[in-house]
Design a protein that fits this description.
heterodimer; A: 844 residues; alpha/beta; FAD/NAD(P)-binding domain; 4 domains; five-stranded parallel sheet; 21% strand; B: 108 residues; mainly beta; Rieske Iron-sulfur Protein; three-stranded antiparallel sheet
Chain lengths: 844, 108
Amino acid sequence: MTQTAERPDTPPSAPARSRLVVVGNGMSGARALEEILARGGGDTFAITVFGEEPYGNYNRILLSEVLANAAGEAVDNEDADDEIYLNPLDWYDENGITLHAGVRIVRIDRPSKVVYGDDGSVTPYDTLVLATGSRSFFPPMEGMWASTTRLTPGVFGFRSLDDATGMLEHVREHRTAVVIGGGLLGLEAAAGLQAHGVAVHVVHPTEVLMNQQLEAEASKVLRSKLQDMGMHMHLGVKTSEILVEDGRVAGVRFTDGSDLACDMVVVTAGIRPNIGLAMVSGLETQRAIVVDDTMRSVDDDDIYVVGECAQHRGEVYGVVGPLWEQAAVLADVVTGTNPDARYHGSRLATKLKVAGVDVAQMGVKIPERSSDEFVQFSETGRGVYQTVVIRDGTLIGATLVGDVSKVAALTQAFDSRSALPEERVKLLFDLGSADDGAAAADLPDDTQICNCNGVSKGDLVGCVEDGAESVSACMAATRAGKGCGSCKGLVKEVVEAALGGAGREDPADSYYVPGIPMDKPTLMREIRSRGLTSVSAVFEALAPEGRDHVGSKMGLTALLRMMWPHEFVDERDGRFINDRVHANIQRDGTFSVVPRMSGGVTSPDQLRRIADVAEKHEIPMVKLTGGQRIDLLGVPKEKLQEVWADLDMPSGWAYGKSFRTVKTCVGTDFCRFGLGDSTQLGIDIEETYKGIEGPAKMKLAVSGCPRNCAESMVKDVGLVAVEGGSWQIYVGGAAGATIRKGDILATVDSHEEALRITGRFLQYYRENANWLERTYDFVPRMGLEYLQAVIVDDSEGIAADLDARMQEAVDAYVDPWASDQTERTPGQFHDALPLVPLPQVPVR
Amino acid sequence: MSSVDVVEGRLGPVDQIPVGEGRAFLVGDEPVAVFRPRSGGLHALRAICPHRGGPLADGLVDGEVVMCPLHNHQFSLVDGSCATGTDDVAAYSAAEEDGELVVRLRHT
């Protein structure tokens, strides 16, 4: 029935509905629509939207992330970049909105109340909303344009998804970029490009980077941080010409006559409101389209304007906060929900991350009157600079660079004009006061927490009071944290404070897997007492109505394999595809193959075999991994068995929630600083605990001295040799999405003891950690002292049992590549994408 | 072109698909993933995830949905509808007839 899209072009419309047309489908157009729908506008209006770009609307704030993220495209990345779309195309259908993507409105016939599209369409309206936004400004300059409409190849604006993807294409083969304009957008572009390994030069006409937001001193601190990151700055100079050779960018020339060679130019010299449509249609425009306090054009009662193309009381805003406020007022008035709603302008407070450096700014930048108080703190070594400006006892401005921990309290003081501490310095520092958790609870309700979507603490608390039981539920309901994402930590604190205070917790948060309402200890008790040895048996006995649940299978499989090393009934449908075929699925449906190379030590024979296999099977990419192994990427599923056989090496388990690898340094054999034989210990640990499965992956390392070349302090378990023949055992370290330095669980004085304590810790982790809980969360949750007591001092008398159960798992180990040389299930290695030629990844 | 023609694939024994899993087949020139949930029945969906082209036949399955192995989008086994925010996937009819797996596509 629902086979294919057979959705009508226009919703079945009751004739009484009046026609609302929105021109512009960017962030402000979309926000205006959402606000209108939230006020029941979907019933009042037949809504039509025109968007010039051929996409659904997307979050422009995340463009920088699109640019930067693609640099780090990882092998097992999860949610990728569809977060950038604010509303998928379905959203328009679901809300009965007709979307014309890729159609530009060229004229408004105001007397007849119709708009003309560049596709020849004529669309009548009763109410028109203009949200045409703005565009990059390209200063007139020789060499900028290849034709009247096309930029010289290699020149980019930074405004649309097309700009970002165009740049991504370009950086693959180009090495030096010049960014013209060192404002916020320019620095974001520069940082994004730098993440791709491109040498970046920023050209800015004054000495003050981000001069819209920052004064000279603050800018200087930012500049030196960016320079430390390797960015080149050309300040106080202007670009006079873009040098072109063979129709492509070859360099830029400055007004002082000097040249700089480059193969890419990004122009971020400001934005200009798109007001052409309004001008030809006879609406009053100055810098932008002039509106009154109801966001209505001053010339036409049926035309509203919102966003960067609106000029209100002389101000044109280019950041999102004011757009949200405008959209709310517009919706109140248009839908009649509150005809008296008025927009009074916005006080600008911005909080952002510029190329990894936190910056927050509100109000005035520097004291303006001799009576203004000015508190200034500068710690250039750490790249921190903070100022506040106070007038008549109230905060009228603040600038924070490098450390924005006090931004919530300052924003509150700024917005509410509340009384300030006598000791002004307390505005910037906690002088022996409470921690952040208490701070979140103490914030007044009207403190804005999410500056992108304008969500206050009160909104979040209200959400909790309305029954939301988790941080993610509050984020979904309010959109807090869904813009740039920098406030997620604070959102979590506020929601958790609210949840804790109300004494309510989402019981589902404690479930081991979502499909079975039990925490891990209860679940394990039930499984053991009922003797449940298969995933289907667990569902049948313990799930509501005995229903199986797709998102719970993997966690249960892992748990049962841990609990029943011998008795486990292996149901292959309980495994994720990686665990069915012992390889890591890639974006094109091919797999990666990583053989075990214990301790990162290999041999000419192994390397020769790997090379032969790569040649024979035309492996598209052979890559060294971070765990000191060799990854063969792009192997189709049906070739896996053959590749394994030809390699004649054991599985390295690079695909599992399992013991992965032990990274080592060269230790005492060769290193002149080595204190312990880290290589051998690493090999021993890996050979012993290879492939042991758990709640999440386990990455280990052994370093032969405190120089720590194997990065032991940021591993799930990391060992470091210290003088005197001892090994320090760190646990709970991480250096991925989270960075955490491990804690010292124990210091031992032999290989054997190091091996045993490592195994005992891993077994305790396997038995007690939640599904997908890495050690960096597990160790602080349990508490280091407790872990030391149980694992090292055997305070609960379970050490011998832990060791025995780990030994049982070790004894039950089978190399999956060897054992699955014969098919375990029919079609285990069959192609799942017939007709799609694989691999699709580029061959390097 | 406007007439409804049904493309039928007779795909051999149902046992090719292990219980609780899915396998991919070609029916005409359409790649189809057929699933055999533990709770019974046979379900057929287009084999390619509309989000990023992931292989749905490799996904985990329960009584109601299949979960794409690439980004965890979930699709109803019955009608292909997606509850996790990407496009729906086409659903086809699958049945066991005389011990043989039969999938029918409807092209309109």
